[in-house]
Write a structure and sequence with these properties.
This protein has 76 residues and is low in regular secondary structure. Helices cover 14% and strands 11% of the residues.
Length: 76
Amino acid sequence: MLALRPNCECCDRDLPPESSEARICTFECTYCAACADGELGGQCANCGGNLERRPIRPAAALVKYPASTERVLKQH
């Protein structure tokens, strides 16, 4: 199950579970669309994989399976 990390690892922008601006790689490294499409050029800064739009977990499922609250921020 996806962790749904709460922020962009590059700029620390908030990315709530319902955000259509979140991008992830296969390791769930998480970025906002501006960083993913801009300075990262669609490629994960950690693993080099491609970045795709993160799926949105329905609100009812968030009750049983909440999003992560652990923030990750890396200097790229």
